[in-house]
Amino acid sequence: MSEIKGRIHSLESFGSVDGPGIRYLIFLQGCLMRCRYCHNPDSWRLDSDNLMSAEQILEKAERYKSYWQEEGGITVSGGEALLQIDFLLDLFKKAKERNINTCIDTALQPFTYEEPFFSKFNELLKYTDLFLIDIKHIDDKKHLSLTGVSNTNILEAIKYIDSQNKKMWIRHVLVPGITDDDQYLKETANFIKTLNNVTKIEVLPYHALGVYKWKELGIPYTLEDTLPPTKERVENALKILNS
Fold first, then answer.
1. Which of 32, 122, 23 is closest to 74 using CA atoms?
2. What CATH number does the domain containing 219 carry?
3. Which residues contact 198 (CB under 8 A, 6 or more apart)?
4. Helix or strand or coil: residue 26?
5. Which tens digits make up the pLDDT trace of 194-212?
6. pTM more than 0.85
């Protein structure tokens, strides 16, 4: 059987905001969503010349294990990590053999109950300590306008993960005029209240730091005139979502 290799976008040695403790971050290449505020549009394309095996990545990651202490470990992000579920499963199985804490940062867009994905996803759950899940927008039509895809299967995925008693952090990118409406925030809060395994809720303020990548790639950026949210709006969102 040939060795599974992942399409890698980039690696970061010290992450302090993508899961508990200090994390080694693995960004996988490829995403089918087209979020209007994405700061890594260069991660969208599905192909990559940078192919690595789980062993190669874990050897690099473990060089920093002394910094992780009890809470740290590895976080796989993207792009969208679940598009490479075979590689992700291989990576997390081998990580657990090395007693490494595992976390997936995902928008859950590829989730389906259809096979073979669903069986692989259930297997992946066994080796995943934490999910970081970004709820882009609670309203399906608004979600479609913002990301290019529906949120129906995404919300189903969140409910399913919760039913399997897996810990989750819920994240929400606050974009003025798009995702900061109080009514939609309340609807998001009501959805979160139905879940039993959310251990943290984060509000991530919109920023335009990745706009230069859009320009380099020749992709029109539709939020050119959007400013970051004020401190008051961020605090308001946090208060509503944690209500």
1. 23
2. 3.20.20.70
3. 162, 168, 169, 170, 192
4. strand
5. 999 999 999 999 998 899 9
6. yes
Tokens of 2: 């040939």
Distances (CA, A) of 103 to 48, 133, 223: 23, 11, 30
Euclidean distance between CA atoms 64 and 108, whole angstroms: 28
Sheet holding 101-106, edge to edge: 51-53, 5-15, 23-28, 73-77, 101-106, 130-134, 167-174, 198-205
Is 154 in contact with 172 (CB distance < 8 Å)? Answer: no
Mean pLDDT, contiguous 10-residue spans, the chain (243 residues): 90 95 98 96 94 98 94 96 98 98 98 98 98 98 98 98 98 97 98 98 94 96 95 98 92
Q: How far apart are CA 171 and CA 97, in angstroms?
A: 29
**What are the distances in angstroms from CA 214 to CA 161, 208, 226?**
33, 10, 15
| Total domains in the fold of the chain | 1
Q: Cα-atom radius of gyration of the chain, to the nearest Å? A: 18
Q: In angstroms, rounded to a whole number, what is the distance separating the alpha carbons of residues 76 and 166?
A: 16
Range of the domain at 80: 5-241
Q: Write down the mean pLDDT value for the chain.
A: 96
Distance from chain centroid for Cα 57: 19
Single-letter residue type at 118: F
| H/E segment holding residue 5 | strand 5-15
Q: If you count them, how many residues does the chain have?
A: 243
| DSSP helix/strand/coil, 150 | coil
